[in-house]
Each structure stands twice: as structure tokens, then as C-alpha cells.
Amino acid sequence: MYRRCRRIAIALIAAILIGAVMSSPALAQGSGPESEAVEAAKEELGRAINFAWTLIAAFLVFFMQAGFAMVEAGFSRAKNVVAVLTKNFMDALIGGLAF
């Protein structure tokens, strides 16, 4: 699990660094088919980074949902914990389907 997370983190850092390099002013000075290819690559990389960030933010929100469920279960009486967790599970399920 740790290796997988580490690989994902390295891939995201590499994508951000490539995006920073691709947006340098030196690449924007050329004209012709080369610059069109560079622009297309920049747009594709930008879309990939935006998509990755959206997924990361969604994962964080779902983990926050689980944390709030645990907090709410801790603040309720023992006989109501199942109902509270069921409500939170349904909330997360409907939110995931809507996303």
C-alpha cells in the first residue's frame, strides 16, 4: 500500500514539474508545427493535472465523510450508533453516485 501511494505521489510531482517546464516562456516563442504540438501537449497535460487534482480532492472529501461519521457516532448514544452510521453511509453512497 505504501509503495503504491509513493508511486502515485511521485507521478503527481513529475506531472507538476513537467507542467511547470512546459509553461516556460521560451517554448512560447516559436511558431509552426512544433509550437502547435507543444501547445497540444500543454493542453493535454493541463487536462490530466486538473483531472488528477479533482480525483484527489474527491478522495479527501470522502475520507472527511468517514471522519465525520466517526465523530457523530462518538457523540451519540450506543443504541443510536447503527442508525447514525447508516445515515452517513447512505449520504456517502448517494454523494459518490452523484459525483
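The above is record 1. Record 2 follows with the same two-line structure.
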Amino acid sequence: MSDAQPESPYAWARLFAALLLSAIGGVGMWSVIVVLPAVQAEFGVARSAASLPYTATMICFGLTGWLMNGLFSWAERRLMPWRHDRETHGR
């Protein structure tokens, strides 16, 4: 790509919108870390016991993301063979 063009204002707007939506969506996931000491005190448990459900949830998010990727790839190959053929054969 020798004739590289600078990104358009629309591309930058999309980037900032994606970053904003990601930050807003991630607040719910990471706010547990902030309230963890209060949860620990409320239930009278050690920090490890208070953080175990959060740790299990994050591990399951990671595993299910990986599994859903495989499921969607399988479904695309099975249910939309014309799309898979175009990508693999370069048409």
C-alpha cells in the first residue's frame, strides 16, 4: 500500500463511539472490583471467598466466548456454504 490515505473523520468518529460504548459496557464488569471490600465485610468472609464468584464468572465469560466462536464458525459453514466457499476459494 504505497498510496496510504489518512483516515476519514467518519472513521475516527466510529472509533471514538466504539471506545465510548466499550467503556460504558465494561463498567458493569469491573465495578465488582470496587465494591469487593464492602461485599467481604457484609458477609464476613475472607477476600478469596468473596472474589471466587467473580473469578468463576470471568473464567466462564472467557470460555463461552471461545465456544461461541466455534459454534458460529460451525453454523456458518453448515448453514451458509456459499459464504464459506467464497472465502476459501477466493471468489
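Residues 9-89 form one domain.
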